[in-house]
Amino acid sequence: MSTEHPPSILVVEDEEAIAQGLVFNLKRKGYSVDLALDGEAALEKATTERYDLIVLDVQLPGLDGFEVCQRLRRDGIFTAILILTARDQPDDVIYGLKVGADDYMVKPFDLAEFLARSEGLLRRARWSQAGAQAEAGTREETLAEDAETRFTFGAYWVDFKTWQAKTRGGVVELSRKELAVINVFAEKPNQVITRRELLEKVWELPNHPNTRVVDNVIVSLRKAFEENSWRPRHIHSVRGVGYRFVP
Predict the structure, then answer these.
(1) Distance CA 200, CA 2 (A)
(2) Residues of the chain above pLDDT 70, percent
(3) Counting CB atoms within 10 angstroms of each CB, which of 28, 78, 85, 192 has the fewest?
(4) Do residues 164 and 229 share a domain?
(5) 24 and 90: one domain?
(6) In the predicted model, what is the mean pLDDT of residues 212-219?
(7) Residue 123 has what DSSP assignment?
C-alpha cells in the first residue's frame, strides 16, 4: 500500500442500496473505492487490480462470497477480506475464516463499526507491508532467526512468518485473526486472557459489546488444535472471563 495514494477498496455487494451506501461512506473517509455486483466481476477486478481491502458479501448471484474468497486465496491473492453475511451461524462464520476471510460482520450492521473494522484491516495491511519491506532489506537472516518465527505447542506448530500451521488436519494456512489470537496466546502462556483483551489486541475494538467474534475464532482454533474440543488440552475456557492457553 503506497503512502502516496489513498487506500483502495473493492466492495462486492449485489443489493444496490447497501452497495451505494458503503461506497459513499468509504469515499467520504478518503478511500478509493470500486464496486462489483457479483462474484465473477469480483474475481475479475481482484485479479487484475491491486486492492488494499475487499469488502465481500456472501450471498451473491452466481459465485457466492465463500467461493470468491477461496479462489482468491488459492490464486495467491492475500488482500485483506471483510465478509458481510446475513447468516449469523457459527458454522458459516468458521467456514468463512477457514477459506481465508480476515474478519466478518453480520447484517444489519452499525456503519461506525463497519468503518472501524475496515480501518483496522487497512492499518494491518500497512504494517504487513512495512514488515515485508523491512524483511526485504535484511535477506541475510540465519536459520536460527527463521526458526524463532515458529511457535510449537504439543504436537502442533504455528509459523508466524508463513501463516502456516500444523493442525489435526495437516498443514494449513491460518486466517489473520486466527494467527493474531495464537500470537496473543503465545505471549501469555498459562495466563487468563479476557475477551476484551482479545477484542482490543486482535480486532482493535476494546469497547465493542459483542464478544461473539472472539468465541467464533476460538471454536475454529479448537477444531484445528484440539483432539476433544469439549475437554481441550491447550485452549481452556475461563467461565465468564475469557481463555487460558496452555502450551
Answers:
(1) 26
(2) 85
(3) 28
(4) yes
(5) yes
(6) 86
(7) H
